[in-house]
Design brief:
binds zinc ion; 16 helices; about 500 residues; 9-stranded mixed beta sheet; alpha/beta
Length: about 500
């Protein structure tokens, strides 16, 4: 792993040296070489070291059914892995993180998020159809440079970490070139977050053009497995007709094209994700023999009982993005959490995008609970603990990484958050699950640890430069406005 990284760096140095022969001056070299290596696999910006520490005295929610909870409890971490979890761990001469007054739990796992759209906040309006998320992102997406993609993804990840999200499924359906892919992957690597990069098509790509499978294979070769924090998949265009307001711009492909794209992913051993807004495509996919445990679908609004039985049988998962789904008209369906859980379908939670709402896993759980109570209620009892499980362990199951994250289980990687319970909106705290679902907000996130690296502590980033993330996002958004001549005349 380390050797691969070093050899990659050596190769880059070699390429630079060759470039030096072809140019007349060092200045010209810098101008020519920089774009080629601005985003590339290999070592990125320095991250905090994975050390050894123990979190002491927290209210520990392991989300591991065999371990249960500890109040108070300790968590011992060494070299990126959870070593022990318990009531009081006997370890000395290691760094101590005071967990008193906090809930210690696995970081949230966000299973569907278009990080590349994070720059579009100045352009969208939730209450004006023509300025909605779909028309804005499809209009501005084609103008994005790799640098824009990097800045957008980095902004989204910064928000994810701020909100306690330690794993993100980056649903990148605007991969305009290999360098755009490298840019988004670089943002993930440089921030230290865990995640899957779902390599997608580009906005505006012709529906009769297959996905760039050579590009996907190249990313697999260059970037995977790295240090194990990033994985790879593809995001598929839709099959059938979009039915959401302002929709139709995301690519709608024939079942033959689906077969071709998915076949390419499967030949590389990569998982697949697809939106299912509008008419449900499940029967079409089933009849084509395409459904399997490597498929994740998004937005369960219109599934039938027969379709849910198929999803259960095939091991297909569904990601719900309740914050945005709750804004859709009931004519395009309702959030079918109870129906999916009752059928035994794998379910997880996601943010979708952060253009006209923020990343708030607490609000996602809260909306889901409210809508469940509103529509279903006692007919299918839903506990607050199950909602926290959906936002953590079930997300890891959905992404196929539950062996590595999603619960505080010894042997898993240390993806841990501390949520302050002494803040005004949380105190005096009672049942911790009730507090998380009913009361908490991202500002209560005190500490964020990913793969044993402490990436955020007392509300400050350890690796990301907050001011730079903000400034460069603002500059990129302003430049996009000019390039795209937004708003349209
Ligand atoms: Zn989406």
């Amino acid at each position: 792993m380390t050797r691969n990284r070093l050899s990659r760096r050596t190769m880059l140095k070699g390429a630079t040296a060759l470039g030096a022969l072809a140019v007349a001056s060092r200045g010209a070299l810098a101008q020519q070489a920089a774009p080629a290596t601005r985003f590339a696999a290999g070592p990125g910006a320095p991250l905090p070291a994975r050390g050894e520490f123990v979190i002491r005295g927290a209210s520990v929610l392991t989300m591991d059914p065999s371990l249960g909870d500890f109040a108070p409890g300790d968590v011992h971490v060494r070299d990126g892995a959870i070593v022990a979890v318990g009531g009081q761990i006997d370890v000395s001469n290691v760094q101590v993180l005071d967990g008193r007054g906090t809930i210690c739990m696995p970081g949230f796992v966000d299973t569907h998020w278009h990080l590349w759209t994070s720059l579009f906040r100045p352009f969208v309006r939730a209450d004006v159809g023509a300025l909605g998320y779909f028309p804005v992102s499809s209009r501005l997406g084609p103008h994005m440079t790799p640098e824009d993609s990097y800045r957008a993804a980095r902004l989204g990840i910064a928000e994810a970490l701020s909100a306690g999200v330690t794993t993100v499924h980056n649903w990148a359906h605007n991969v305009r070139s290999p360098e755009h892919a490298d840019a988004e992957l670089s943002a993930m690597r440089d921030s230290g977050i865990r995640g899957r990069f779902a390599y997608g098509p580009a906005q505006g790509m012709p529906d009769d053009q297959p996905m760039d499978m050579a590009g996907v294979a190249r990313v697999k070769r260059d970037w995977m497995p790295g240090d194990g924090t990033l994985t790879l998949g593809i995001c598929s265009r839709n099959v059938g007709a979009l039915n959401v307001a302002g929709g139709g711009a995301r690519g709608v492909i024939t079942i033959d094209m689906v077969r071709q794209d998915w076949g390419g992913a499967r030949a590389l051993g990569l998982p697949i994700t697809m939106h299912t807004s509008g008419a449900s495509p499940i029967m079409v996919l089933e009849q084509a023999g395409l459904l399997g445990p490597d498929v994740q679908l998004i937005h369960a609004l219109l599934t039938t009982a027969e379709e849910r039985a198929i999803l259960k049988a095939r091991g297909v998962s569904y990601s719900l993005a309740p914050t945005g789904e709750a804004r859709r008209p009931s004519s395009v369906g309702v959030i079918q959490l109870a129906e999916l859980l009752e059928a035994g379908v794998k379910v997880s939670l996601s943010t979708d995008h952060t253009t006209n709402y923020n990343c708030d896993p607490f609000v996602a759980m809260r909306i889901l609970f409210a809508l469940h109570q509103h529509r279903v209620g006692a007919k299918f009892p839903l506990t607050v603990k199950r909602l926290v499980q959906l936002a953590t362990l079930d997300g890891a199951v959905d992404l196929g990484i539950a062996g590595r994250t999603g619960s505080l289980t010894p042997g898993k990687r240390a993806d841990i958050i501390l949520v302050r319970t002494t803040d005004i909106n949380m105190t005096p705290v009672g049942d911790p699950y009730e507090a998380l679902v009913s009361l908490a907000q991202p500002s209560n996130i005190d500490t964020v640890i990913v793969d044993g690296r402490i990436l955020r502590r007392s509300g400050s980033f350890a690796a990301l430069d907050h001011a730079r993330v903000v400034r460069e996002a603002q500059e990129a958004a302003a430049a996009l406005r000019e390039k795209a001549k937004w708003p349209p005349a």
